[in-house]
Amino acid sequence: MIFDPGAPNLVKEGDLVQLHGTTHKNHLLVMKVGEVFMTHRGVINHDDIIGQPWGVRLESHTGNPFFVLQPGITDIVQSIKRTTQIMYPKDIGYIVLKLGVGPGKRVLECGGGSGGLTTVLAYLVGDTGKVYSYERNPEVQALAHKNLRLLGMEHRVEFKHGDAADGFDERNIDALFLDLPNPYDYLDQVSDSLIGGGQFATLLPTMNQVEITLKVLGHKNFAFIDVCEILLRHYKSDWGRLRPVDRMVAHTGYLIFARSIQAQLNELDSEEEASDIVD
Amino acid sequence: MIFDPGAPNLVKEGDLVQLHGTTHKNHLLVMKVGEVFMTHRGVINHDDIIGQPWGVRLESHTGNPFFVLQPGITDIVQSIKRTTQIMYPKDIGYIVLKLGVGPGKRVLECGGGSGGLTTVLAYLVGDTGKVYSYERNPEVQALAHKNLRLLGMEHRVEFKHGDAADGFDERNIDALFLDLPNPYDYLDQVSDSLIGGGQFATLLPTMNQVEITLKVLGHKNFAFIDVCEILLRHYKSDWGRLRPVDRMVAHTGYLIFARSIQAQLNELDSEEEASDIVD
Amino acid sequence: MIFDPGAPNLVKEGDLVQLHGTTHKNHLLVMKVGEVFMTHRGVINHDDIIGQPWGVRLESHTGNPFFVLQPGITDIVQSIKRTTQIMYPKDIGYIVLKLGVGPGKRVLECGGGSGGLTTVLAYLVGDTGKVYSYERNPEVQALAHKNLRLLGMEHRVEFKHGDAADGFDERNIDALFLDLPNPYDYLDQVSDSLIGGGQFATLLPTMNQVEITLKVLGHKNFAFIDVCEILLRHYKSDWGRLRPVDRMVAHTGYLIFARSIQAQLNELDSEEEASDIVD
Amino acid sequence: MIFDPGAPNLVKEGDLVQLHGTTHKNHLLVMKVGEVFMTHRGVINHDDIIGQPWGVRLESHTGNPFFVLQPGITDIVQSIKRTTQIMYPKDIGYIVLKLGVGPGKRVLECGGGSGGLTTVLAYLVGDTGKVYSYERNPEVQALAHKNLRLLGMEHRVEFKHGDAADGFDERNIDALFLDLPNPYDYLDQVSDSLIGGGQFATLLPTMNQVEITLKVLGHKNFAFIDVCEILLRHYKSDWGRLRPVDRMVAHTGYLIFARSIQAQLNELDSEEEASDIVD
């Protein structure tokens, strides 16, 4: 696997490497003997990287410094090729924690786009879990598929070409994320696939979408509904002049969380109790 | 394992169950045949829960409704017994994502407190990873240890009684979190334990602590320093009157991230190159 | 006038005084020879305050310290007796600046409540301006009237008992603020009273109200519509441990601003141009 | 006076006019018979504006629409020529309200820059108040002076060339604002000029400046210290897709407020009381 979570401390062929300049510019590349990496800041041979300890500082042939790093999962998400809108780490971190995505979990996403969230989900469920990724647009999905293959996590994801309206094949899913503009149209399909008590989440840019989703959620088998937004404020790291940066992302989307409940099944129980009384 | 990530859809003995009332009040308990759960809202027999599908709605003997849920990792963190200050999910989610905590990773924390973050770390590294948790206060650590045992994740954590000043036994750690008021005093110890390029993080309540930490980080083997804060704003989920809640948590702490680099080693390289020229 | 903007530096009879304890507790009272002020923190004679310089520190008979201050306009707004919801200084400051409320201006408010905003408007327009304050509830208006009289600014306000639906008597008003749950129902009345280009503003707690208001504004003679919200974050003023306070007001309301334009008159112009062509 | 607060409803020669295109681009100009306004969006004759009602929609010779508006005070502040950093309306609104700037008040500012805040202060104190504006840089002050003259408010401001270190000539000032990087160096001068209980304010970009200011304030004759920051979040005004704008200003500065108190005088009182006992 290319993106090796338990990497030793020396770079070897096949490793995914993040070359990070002293500014914010950085590149992800897979190490291959004999290959050459060319940038406008100079040339670096892969052979000069392989065998070096992680964290080392190298220089291109023009003397520009680069650090050799294992890419973090947020670096990867922000670097993958994409044709669809990005999800931000501030949102992803909170979503996967609330959804309880972790080793062994079976999670489903629909509207996976180019695979940003897919990558994090696959990373977190590990080899013992599974991600089911539905997408209607084959070209977008092909890109996500390619991204996951490059990262060596292809086997953790089952890519499914399909529309949320037709429902999902899986049952007893631990957590489900819809990345669609109209999640409110597919809440029955979500209920069908989620395990009782399972977490549902979605991210919506406008208040109008939130309103409709809340309205429909209230009439379906969901409880413990939570709407929130996450704001991330960066600070300049100049210790003698500590202050926030001048501008920030003011909005990505509103997050909605809800848990699937067995309300219909409960009503069945009530009827049985009623018949008990008759007896 | 009590906290079973791949649980089937029926509650069985030994499962960790979250009993969630219709309000925000909820309880975590481990299912045991014959046991009785007593609350001021009525009595429920464990035997009436075992065998039920997850997500079912039950009632106490006084008619109060409870939902039977698999607790999410955030529910667990917020419910564990503690004697130290809580870390909030908004911060934890961003921290673990930035640190790249996932299956198979080896992560180290110091100042683990009652085990809130420890629980999430153990959850995410899975059975193939390891958490090294240092704590100076034996009583606090005993509580964290007990919490992890109850959650069935004890084997994923190595609890170590020790002070950051003495350094950490582990090397080539993937990510390291200091939950201490003076992280700036232990940055050499952090460098020693982190793999080259490994992620370091800390959370500090005051600007003064941030300033000192930034100042010291600038003189040590760290790069790509990032200071930020996460704000979480909840909304009332009443769809016809959508608006933020009246009050919010204004501050938990400032997050600092930095990556360990091999600067000294790089200077060694430079000397070797120099000697090359002599030859 | 009790609330004397150009006060000399000694307290005299008739002055409005803010007695401010060392904590946040404070009292507003009008100085009167022979009167006694009793609080649970001790007794202070008005005669002991009169003749003192502003800013002096006195003590009650039980030794509790009080500072003798000229109340700021924000102190007054937060201290006036009220039966309706408060408007916050963070919102008031931005609203009056955007509305251009200042000496000599003629401003109109409807839904004035207990007179919080009325007080600030009257303060800012001075003796050369005028505030027209409409309110449907006579009891609420009586309280506002009494508050303004106590502050010596009664003559700057024309209190009018009336409903927005019936329109406002005034024309060529410089700025107009509606403090009503359904401002969208009265936008024609607003247009009729505002001078061309005049500023309209309203404050609404929910997104749904904002949506309707925006929708209706788009069909009326308004332009340069602006929707925003103001967040105020206080910091602990302990210099060695600088940090935001733990909790903050997360939401008061969304502000909407729009300027009245002469679109109908412009269409009249177009017709004249059309007739020009005929001629 | 050009910027006439109580303007009639028709534009006349000498009026300050804001020509506002349908986008956010706008221009301020003083009406003069015979003059021509040229922009890249076409030509408009002043004579075609004079005599029109405020709020009218005109077109340039190329057919581009312009609205004829009385500029708001915020429009003016954002349009004045400047060589120094701008203060934002979000901050100005809160500052002037907290400082109680209104008709008849005597306020002092130091570090006035190009006159942004000066303009608002002059606007609010009216003809019965006075603004004392100190500035060390003669060229910057000349620009501020010119700006105020153009706005017809020159007579409300006394421009003084001077350094805060030398103190201010005025006494019993109602409110005082320092726009300097090191306000902590001049707090005695502030105390000398402020009336007892008078409001002091400053705006500082970095936490380090705030810390020092708080530290020094604690040793001087000030009380009721408040540190805060104001965040302004704009929303897209598209009613069917209501959402915050994508990016916002994350930081302008931290605001510090404090009130001057008569602590030394109070200690004098105590001595007198002591001598009373002797007698």
Which SSEs are present, and which pair or pack?
The structure is a homotetramer of 279-residue chains.
Chain A lengths: L15 E6 L4 E5 L5 E4 L2 E4 H4 L7 E3 L5 E5 L3 H7 L9 H10 L7 E5 L5 H10 L4 E6 L2 H13 L6 E5 L11 E6 L8 H7 E11 L2 H11 L4 E15 L6 E2 L2 E3 L4 E7 L2 H16 L1
Parallel strand pairs in A: 7-8, 7-10, 8-9, 10-11
Antiparallel strand pairs in A: 1-2, 1-6, 3-4, 5-6, 11-15, 12-13, 12-15
Tell me the number of strands of chain A.
Answer: 15
Oligomer: homotetramer
CATH class identity of the largest domain in chain A: Alpha Beta
Question: What's the CATH architecture of the largest domain in chain A?
Answer: 3-Layer(aba) Sandwich
Mean pLDDT figure of chain A: 88
Low-pLDDT stretches of chain A: 264-279
CATH homology superfamily name of the largest domain in chain A: Vaccinia Virus protein VP39
Could you explain the architecture of this structure?
Four copies of one chain form a homotetramer. Chain A is α/β, with parallel strands linked by helices. Helix content of chain A is 28%, strand content 31%. Chain A contains eight helices and 15 strands. In chain A, the strands form three sheets. Chain A has an eight-stranded mixed sheet with strand order 9-8-7-10-11-15-12-13, with helices on both faces. A four-stranded antiparallel sheet of chain A has the order 2-1-6-5, covered by helices on one side. In chain A, strand 12 and strand 13 form a beta hairpin. In chain A, helix 2 packs antiparallel against helix 4. The radius of gyration of chain A is 23 Å and the shape is globular. Chains in contact: A-B, A-C, A-D, B-C, B-D, C-D.
